[in-house]
Amino acid sequence: MRFAVILLILLAAVCSVASIVPQNKGEQWYYGSYSEKTASLILFLDLDDAYHSWWFIAIGIFLCVNLLMCNVIRIPQLVKKHRRYTDPASAGSYGCDVQASGIGDPSGIFGRLGMTRVTEAKDGSGREILFASKNAVGIWGAWVCHLGILLLIVGFGLGQMLMRQYAVYGVAGQTRQIGDSGYVLTIDDFSVELRDDDTVDQYRAYITVKDSSGQSASSEISVNNPASLFGMKFYQNSTGWAAAVSVYKDGELLQRDVICAGEYVTVSDLPDLAVYFNAFYPDYILYEGRPATASGRLNNPGYLYSIYYRSQIVGMNVLMKDEKITVDDYTITFDEPQNYTVIQIKRDPFTPLAFIGAMVLILGLFINFYMPARIMWAVRGEELVWSVCGYSPKGGSIFRDEFEKAIREAAPEA
C-alpha cells in the first residue's frame, strides 16, 4: 500500500505538470514560448506529450502490477476470513458490537435482522449456540473495487495505445474513405439547427457506412449523441462552410467542384491556375474595414477567394452573389453555399474491457457500502435464557440501531 500511495502521488504530480505545459505544440513552438533551457528540458523529458511518454506508461504499468499483486496477496486472507464469517465455531472470537441477555426466545431477533439461516451448534463448554451470518460477501467489497480499477486502467491504457482515429469531412451526398480501415462513409444529409438568436442549437448528420463486402449500416449522429457502427464510434465533431466552384472557358462549363473553406481547386486544363476558397460569410458585412458576418443565416453570402498562378498569388477579394472572376479566357463563379460536417471516428478494441472494469468498480462500491458483513450468535445459559451478541466490521452504528430495534420488538423482556 505504501508503494501504491507513492505511485498515486507521483501520478498526480505528473498530471499537474502536464496540465501546465501545453501538449503537442511542436519543437519550434516550445523554443519560441520558453527559454532555451526550459524548452530543451520539456522536450528531453517528453513533457510536450506527457501522457504518451515512456515514463508515464511505466508509472501506469507499475500501478497495475501493484494493484494486481495487492489483490493476489489478499485472496488467501479473505478466503479464510469468509470461512470464519460462516463458521459457528468462530462465534465470540470477534467480540461484541452489541449484546443483550435475559432473552427467552432469540429466533425473532434473528428473523428481524434478516438472518434466516440459523445454525445450531455447541461451544467448547458444551453450551447450546445459535449462529447466523449475513452478507459475508461484504468483506470482498474493497477487493472487487481494486479489481475494477485495475481492469479500468488496463482497458483505457491499451485503448489509448492501440486505438485508431480517423476524421472524415464533406457535404451531404459525398462519399469518403475512412482512412485505411477499408470502410467508406456516405454523408446522406447534414443540417445545422439555429435558435432564434442565430446561435447553434444542434448539428445533426445522417450517415451510411459500408464495408468491403458491401454490407451497410445507417445512423443519425449529433453533438453528444454518437453512433456505433461496425465496431467504431462516430462523433459529430464540427462544421464549416463549403461552396460549389464553377470554371467556364469561352462561355462553356469546364468543371464544377464542391470544396470546403480552406481548400483549393486547380483548373483542369491549366494546372498552374488555382482557386483557393479562404472563407465564407453567410451575411457579409464590412466591420472596421474587415470582412465579417452579421448573422449565421444566408442573407448576403460572400466568398473570400484567392487566385494563384504558378504558386504566386495574383488576386484576392470577396465575391458576392452573381459576381464572377475573370482570368484570361476563364470565368470562375461561387454558388450553392452549404455546411459541411466533420465526423470523428474511433475504433478502440478495449472499450468493452474498460466498461467491464467500470461495472466491476460500481459492483465493488455497492458491496462495500450496501452489503456490510454481519454475524450474530446466541448462547443458551442457565434457566433456559439466552444471551445474544452481534458484530459487524463496517456500519457498526447502523447495525447497533437495527439490533436494538429487533430486541425491543422481539424480546422486550431483555
Detailed description of the structure:
The structure is a single chain. The protein is α+β, with helices and mostly antiparallel strands. The chain has 4 domains: 2-75 and 143-161, no CATH class; 86-135 and 372-410, no CATH class; 164-240 and 343-359, no CATH class; 242-337, no CATH class. 31% of the residues lie in helices and 39% in strands. It has 8 helices and 21 strands. Strands 4, 9, 10, 11, 18 and 19 form a 6-stranded antiparallel β-sheet that branches. A hairpin with a 5-residue loop joins strand 6 and strand 7. Helix 4 runs antiparallel to helix 6 (141-162) and helix 6 (141-162) runs antiparallel to helix 7. It is elongated. The model has no long low-confidence stretch (mean pLDDT 90).
